Amino acid sequence: MHWWSMSKEETAKALETDLQNGLQQQEAKRRLAENGENALQQDQKKQSLLIRFLAQFDDFMILLLLGAAVVSVVVSHMNGETDFLDALIIVGIVVLNAILGVIQENKAEKALEALQKMAAPHAKVLRNGQAQEIATTEVVKGDILLLDAGDYICADGRILESKSLKTEESAVTGEAMAVEKEADACYDEKTPLGDRKNMVLSGGYALYGKAKVLVTATGMDTEMGRIAKMLSNTKSQETPLQKKLEKTGKQLGIGALVICGIIFVMGILQHKPPFSMFMTAVSLAVAAIPEGLPAIVTIVLAIGTQRMSAKNTIVRRLPAVETLGGATVICSDKTGTLTQNKMQVVQLADSNRINVTNKATKETIQHLFALCNDCNIRDGNLTGEPTEKALAECAATSGIDFMALRKEMPRVGEIPFSSERKRMTTVHKTEEGWISVTKGAPDIVLEQCSFCLEDGGQNYFDGAKKSKVRMLNGEMAGNALRVVAVAFRQWSKQPPIDADVLEKDLVFAGMAGMVDPPRPAVRESVQICKKAGIRPVMITGDHVLTAKAIAKELGIYHTNDLAVTGAELDKMDDAMLQESAKTCTVFARVAPEHKVRIVKAYQKNGNVVAMTGDGINDAPALKAADIGCAMGKSGTEVAKGASDLILTDDNFATIVSAVKEGRGIYDNIRKAVHFLLSSNIGEILTIFAAMLFGWAAPLLPIHLLWVNLVTDSLPAIALGMEPTEQDVMKRMPRKNGGSLFDDGMGVRIVLEGMMIGMLALLAFGIGHIYFDKQAGYAVGRTMAFAVLSISQLIHAFNMRSERSLCYVPVFSNLWLIGALVVGVLLQTAVIMIPFLAEIFKVVPLNQTQWLLVTGLSIAPLPIVELEKILQRKK
Questions:
Q1: pTM for the full predicted model
Q2: Catalytic residue among 143, 151, 333, 350
């Protein structure tokens, strides 16, 4: 239907919607079930389990191994032999590995889907006569949307009421300019999409003002839905660390292939059976190539983000988790993040003094604050923005019923507050005519005033009086009060809703000073930041004296620090700002556009910057920051959409907690990678050294694949569950752009790999020399097989901390203990259960042999402990 050509009443009738109360809840549920969710269909369909299972074999070396196993079976069968059990077991292990791979991928995917649901946008709708917040996917045709500045527009709709609404619709129309909307207009049916000013379009957002909108289309029926096929598909994110590890894995894989090739050639030169050497080389390549590194990182990140969600942090973009641990500057809003956002008016001032003595002036100030106010009473409770609630409560202390006042002096127009203007204006009908009321930042409101109230009368507002008011404002701000001014103008005829008209030649009435106490945990969090090498910076629209007083109380601002105002910032070029940023801890009276410059200044000084924001115009700064943190309670949907993280409690302490978790997650990724690579190097060196010395192969192909199965997945994932270390926030941040293998980790990986290889070879030598009575290597191989597997499981415990394990609680990671128990039980089973021992070509070990295996397997613990002691001394 051509909704833009219809009146509001005709549209409501066609959609069967009550304009006063919206849809009934039951009717909304029925429409949702009938028409489906309000979401665009994704072209990218989920792969079936079978396809994902087959994808696990999409690797040249695995295909080569499976091909060799099949050839082995066919050749054995053609020769009349029945001994092709080895080949079948190899195929079985590869298939089991593929099943585990699918399970891991499935878990990671579900974890990420859960996070996406938590980060999903919400919409305000009118149902059953009550405003309520729901997920945008639950919005149905016929719903009444309540739009505020900063809200995403989640459906197409016909505007019912508009209060200076301006929208951005470039995603649909291609027009980048803000579009001013009109509720009462009707247009011809052939009017182009971009000119239908009585409609809003899904995919846009409200830039300014407010509106009530009747939803006319949802999901694929919207204008956005019609062009959905032209939109890029959502692809799974690959983090910088995953990309680096994928590249590292390929390089290590090439190295492993070269060594495996050398092993194969050496075996041929030593006249060993070519097919046997080929199977050994390919099995070693499959076991040793770390193709699963990026997948392990995804799983560890997913586990970490789930843990963060339980601590009031929703991760929207996985790369942010990696970046968090390296944050060196946290730029935080003051109100609601560093403070409680629980305002209380403690002082009222007029143009002459703080604490107004004239009763008439005091009541006038309170009346004006009550009129220019968007609070409401719902279910007997005062609702609204904290500053406005405080002003309404202040009026109530003098017996002013602001709801009754609104009926007596109804609002007929308004110019909403915005962070650029730092003021709002409302227009009201009175018995004598009309009155406009403007409230906002004192220095902004003062500039619009030509007169002032004095002892109940009006006088000319000259320069000296304005200076005195500025002095009073400074005194209140210096006492850590948030100060709001109010002014008015009376009209004999209804004025136009135009700021250039309404906000000129005003009468200054007075100011309210509000206390906003700091959040209890913030001071402690600031101290934690400083110990962790992170500089907290306050950014606020408040007066510089208010900002400095609160920042000093919280430990952010100190005597030698700089405090820069927005006006001073405007006079600085980028080089000056970059220099000032080195010592600045407070930015006051800043506009949202200043935030981008502040972020870039810190970044140019080599910092990794986290930035908080909640408004529409904070979005560019949130995107420019290394970690954009949107507020979950007070944040607009636009700010949330531009952010990397959402803080569900709007608390500075939560950012610090998130940084701690980010450091812990990065540590756990390092631990998992360290473990996997050192273990893989151990496997390669075991075979390579044996070939180099002309010994028999200490391990068979089936052994190598089994060790890979038992030791790779479970311990690595368990290390991803490791609790964050206690001293993680006493370390300096890691270098910006540094390698995962910094701080000597690369060297330690090689040395520890050599240790594992030597222990396995030692077990092979002892077993063969002392226990293999008959010609053959059965006991030696069995002991080498057991030591290689179990020593890696034990070695995983060395990864828990770079400090001595004496400082790590034994049972703080039950997952790792579980991985050890499961791994040891499986390894013992294939050796001690006769039919499994026969399959794996091993022999049951006696008590003495198991004691030797145990001693060699736990040797990595004291060896690495010694290494840690030497490293700390160095």
A1: 0.74
A2: 333
